[in-house]
Amino acid sequence: MSETNLHILIVGVGGQGTLLASRVLGRYAMLSGMDCKLSEVHGMAQRGGSVVTHIKAGKAIHSPVITEGEADIILAFELLEAKRWLHYLKPGGKLLVNSRRLLPMPVITGAAKYPEGLEQELESAGALLVDGLAAAKAAGSEKALNIYMLGVLCAALSLDRQRFTQAVCECVPQKALEINLRALEAGLAEVK
User: Fold this and answer.
1) 38 by DSSP, 3-state: which?
2) Domain spans of the chain?
3) pLDDT, tens digit, for every residue of 32-72?
4) Which CATH class is domain 6-190?
5) Long-range contacts of 130-135 (CB under 8 A, 24+ apart)
6) Which of 49, 41, 45, 46 is nearest to 105 (CA)?
7) For residue 64, how many other CB atoms are within 10 A of its CB?
8) Among 1, 128, 137, 148, which has the highest number of CB atoms less than 10 A from its own CB?
9) DSSP at 60
10) φ and ψ of 12, to 5 deg
């Protein structure tokens, strides 16, 4: 995050840790001396519904809400959610996507089909697709997906790694910190 304003949209489904991820980014912004505003929108989160967090950081932030075509970065924890929110990405913005699918309830019950070709569509939009779930499991828990994806974001934006690690340490509960720090390191190593 630089001196200019940065608008990040974190999208996923309930239970993936989007809200903790937004708190870590907010803490990083504060540690960096920036103004920061967050806005969370919860869908049917307890049933795996859509969850989106708007994060704005910079010199002076007046509104937390990101409008269509304004996001510098979309950090997507699930493929379909990446597609659903893609129109919020500004031209030249970064799209960082966990490539694993989480089937929504209508797909599970057979009332709908999961869209085909999402990976190709997102790649053609410039997405960096990563297997965040596998990396989080390798770090010790699939619940560390959010911190792994933050590591990818940190590396993609060339953020201060020491300060980012401090933000993670201040936001993640102590009992889960070791696993999450391993996930963060794996995410940092993902972007060359």
Assistant:
1) strand
2) 6-190
3) 999 999 987 755 545 567 889 999 999 989 888 999 999 99
4) alpha beta
5) 130/96, 130/97, 130/98, 130/99, 130/190, 131/98, 131/99, 131/100, 132/77, 132/98, 132/99, 132/100, 132/187, 133/98, 133/100, 134/100, 135/183, 135/186, 135/187, 135/190
6) 49
7) 15
8) 148
9) -
10) -175, -160
Q: Reading across the β-sheet that carries 6-13, which strands appear in turn?
A: 35-42, 50-58, 6-13, 71-76, 89-98, 128-130
pLDDT at 42: 58
Radius of gyration, CA atoms only, the chain: 16
Question: Counting Cβ atoms within 10 Å, is residue 78 exposed (0-12), middle (13-18) or buried (19+)?
Answer: buried
- Beta bridge partners of residue 98, listed in sequence order: 130
All residues at 6 or more sequence positions from 16 whose CB lies less than 8 Å from its CB, including other chains: 51, 77, 78, 102, 145, 146
The Cα-based distances of 68 to 87, 90, 109, 158 in angstroms read: 6, 8, 32, 25
Any idea what DSSP says for residue 65?
Answer: P
Residue 168 identity: V
Q: Is 102:78 a contact under the CB 8 Å cutoff?
A: yes
What whole-number distance in Å separates Cα of residue 78 and Cα of residue 169?
A: 25
- Confidence (pTM): 0.92
